[in-house]
Structures are given as C-alpha cells and as structure tokens.
Amino acid sequence: MSKQKEINKWSTFFKNRGLSDEISDKYIAYITKLLENNTLIIFDFNHLSLLLGRQPFYLASVVNSPDNHYRNFKIKKRSGGFREITTPFPALLEMQYWIFNNILKNISVNPCAHGFAFKKSIITNANIHAGQNELLKLDLKDFFPSININRIIYVFKSLGYPNEIAFYLASICSYNESLPQGAPTSPILSNIIAKQLDKRLINLSKKYSLKFTRYADDLTFSGKNIPAKLIEYINEIIKDEGFEVNEAKTRLYKNNRKRIVTGISVLDKEIKVPKDYKRDLRQELHFIFKYSFESHVKKKKIRKSNYLESLIGKVNFWLSVEPKNMFAQDAKKKLLEIYKTTTHNK
To answer: Is this model's pTM higher than 0.85 or not?
Structure first.
C-alpha cells in the first residue's frame, strides 16, 4: 500500500470514529512522519502491547523494571579476561526481535560500519586495509554499556515517535539504562547512534588520504602515512561524540610486521588467515588424519561434544578468507566424511 493510500485509510477511519478535524489532523501529521521514515505506527501504550502480543501488565513490568527480565553470564575474551553478556529472557527477546524487524532493520547506517551491517562482515572490514603501508587500530571502551538510555530514546524520537512511545521502546531495548550485550536490538542501535561518530572520522581520514572502517568497537585507519598526531584528533572526536578510547589497545603499525584486523591478517594485498591460526589447526588436523579422529580425541582427552563441529567451523573460516587454499579444501572434505561416519554410527 502506498503512503498516500495509507494516510487516506486512516483519515477515513478517524472520520468514521467521529474525531474532530483538529484531532484528526494531529493524528495524520504524526502518521505521515512515521510513514516518511518507513516505520511502524504506534499510538499509545495499549496499542504497543497489542502489537507486541503481550499483556499490558507484562509490558509495564519490562518498561519499569527491565533488569528483572535478563540473566547474566561471562565468556572468555581472546585477549584475556572475561566479557559479561546480558541476555533477555525468551518473552523479552521476542519483543526485541519485533522492534528490530518492524522498526530498526531498515534504518540506514554509515557505510564504514562493517559490524552487524547488511552484506558486511569481518572479511569486508579487513579487505579495505589489506596491503596498506601503515595501520592504526583503536578500541572503544565499554562500547554497548557506554550508550545510555537517553541516546536510545533519541533514536526512536528521531523517527517521529513522541516522548512516551520512544521511552517505552528504548526501555524494552535497555538493561541498567544502557545497551545490553546480548539483546538483538543492541548492534543495530549502536550503529545508528554511532552514525555521527562514523561521519566525522571518515571526514578526518579523508583529509589524510586514509581508509577508515569501524567493526562494532574496533576502529581501523590505514594508508600511506599516519602521523602520530592523528591519534590525538581521533580521541577528541570520540570523546566529543560520547565515547571513550581504550588507550591500552591503541596500536600504530609503521613497519612490515604482524597486522591483524578483526581476526584476519592484512599485511599483504590479499587478506589471509593468521599464521598461528593455520599452524595450530594444521597440527591438530595432522594427528586426526594420521591416527584417526577417535584416537586423537582419546589421547588428548577432549570432552567437548561439539569438537568435530568446531573443527569444521575453523576450516570454514579459513576458506571464507582464503577460498582457493588447497589444504583447507581437502581438510574440509575429510572432516565432513568423518562427520558423516560418526553421526551415522550414533
């Protein structure tokens, strides 16, 4: 249905309900703005609860006490330490997916954002910086938690929702009045909120003839020459946009040495899987193919139920970066044969 037809439909509806022209005009102005932003029409709290398929008392509980609808756990970081994940319970998770699919999914983000973006990935992110003379990497500190509820409310207000509706929607997407790590709405909201940051950093990089990408909280600049002074300018922009740099992770590479961007080596003109990743995986696969999968698992006392699947996943990652690698192609075939045999014998 065209936007004008939709507006005409609502006009007829309001007229049939006996609304005055003044009230009807206000509703139509509200509806028109939402339609112009290609987003969903929501009139009030009860209407939102109907759209979400939840009872008003449940929605009120989420809005007033969102922290009661999450569970927390920790996962190990590659760099050491732990990352705290806050994941919503199933009913809230379903509501967040509804908001993502019906409101947030079609909002544009800056093209430099490669994390959680359509047709973007760690591979597209790394490709841009392959074979560049110099490389600068920065990390945003506590990226999701640093985005408070007021900034989330502003996203929904900018689409045309009034304060109350924007607050309800933002509360559904928040934990402890900030973006939670495990909610499906957090990645897209972070990209939307970081649009101005991305724009300013792109403009800065262009002044120095550099390439720039952001993958979630990882910022990467590359080019022929990166002056050390640039780091200071970047930090000022980041701080001005309400974020903070994790200075301990700032790295400026000026010599031909190991360079990893979002888990991929960009030292050469063609991206590659890091050498240590290949070495460790080759060694593991060597013993499996030489002595059998069962013998390897028994000897190494491996108790992971999904160990074989994880190996296939590692090889698939290798092939996604280096699709023509003959060793990885052969390894995948052999692992899939083992997988067929082991699942058949269960």
So the answer is: yes
